[in-house]
Amino acid sequence: xxxxxxxxxxxxxxxxxxxxxxxxxxxxxxxxxxxxxxxxxxxxxxxxxxxxxxxxxxxxxxxxxxxxxxxxxxxxxxxxxxxxxxxxxxxxxxxxxxxxxxxxxxxxxxxxxxxxxxxxxxxxxxxxxxxxxxxxxxxxxxxxxxxxxxxxxxxxxxxxxxxxxxxxxxxxxxxxxxxxxxxxxxxxxxxxxxxxxxxxxxxxxxxxxxxxxxxxxxxxxxxxxxxxxxxxxxxxxxxxxxxxxxxxxxxxxxxxxxxxxxxxxxxxxxxxxxxxxxxxxxxxxxxxxxxxxxxxxxxxxxxxxxxxxxxxxxxxxxxxxxxxxxxxxxxxxxxxxxxxxxxxxxxxxxxxxxxxxxxxxxxxxxxxxxxxxxxxxxxxxxxxxxxxxxxxxxxxxxxxxxxxxxxxxxxxxxxxxxxxxxxxxxxxxxxxxxxxxxxxxxxxxxxxxxxxxxxxxxxx
Length: 460
What we know:
The chain is 28% helix and 23% strand. By secondary structure, the chain is of the alpha+beta class. The strands form 7 sheets. Strands 2-1-4-5 form a 4-stranded mixed beta sheet, with helices on both faces. A 3-stranded antiparallel beta sheet has the order 3-9-6. Strands 10-12-13 form a 3-stranded mixed beta sheet.
């Protein structure tokens, strides 16, 4: 056993401090080593070996045995306006479906492994050798002292409850708020047994979500601007607060809510203003501390008197080149639905007004992500790769594409999402029918019929 695993808390503190401002190359003493491309953990393994004298291991105990501390090396990046953001989730220990459910939170494998984590942050920069990326900050994360402990425990219990119900195969990172169950394996074929079902479940690990890590980065590395909180010092849980919002406003019309909150506007942002005021928030609800950390996106949905949702839900426009070069496993689309929870604010039409019917928290089931969503994405890639975007041009000059339409899936489709036909992105392959090298922006959409199915309880 390497001596590094026996370091005391004081040893770990001193060595961590000595690493600040340095790169992996600074510790190699001329030794030639490579960082495996695509292996997110390889840089962390070099830190363990060359800075802390720990050989790579799969031990269920924390990295530092005597101190009971786990070591994690994780990147952050600079984004617009000098803001900082976590580059990825912080992956913790693999979930042992067959045994973890037997434990309570404070005696779990998760707690034993991760209750105290020595975090080393390094600044990720594009087009730079990873061994030259600089370690800039350190933090001793102690879960027992975290203000988020109660929510993290609730998240752990939700994951364990799904396992107990024989639904490990239905786990999704978006099920929870801060602590997620992320996929861990080469691809969707990386599966393992679960205790209460014969269905094989994807291999998963506990993780702190990217959105949660971003807030931690901003608060600790001092690029943090104080943002509004939904929970303003109350002893309420997030779930209880949402329930109180529903009780206070359910059944009120849009006009009544506008009068209640003193809003006089016909702007498109009126719905955003209404839902913010329901939560007693001055700014955008999406920008509050709790919504950012949990990666919750609020959306208003209008249901007509006949029960129809008349608008599909659009996602950000995609770049054709990005889709072509990125397989589904690594795509922004998969990442979005694996990690995002939507909060639907439902308004149903009654006469000439819309009545607030309630709120639904929803995330896309893993089975849909791996079937309809995957197929739509891969079909889109094939069409872009082949140059067969345009199927034909009608007499009125309208272009009809081969992209998956609403008739191809009950869940999702592809169609334009641009200011006009001239609002384009470059094509990596020239379109065969039109000869165009750029094309009107398109995006992925969630079908209105699927939204109706998700929200059918509001039609009772």
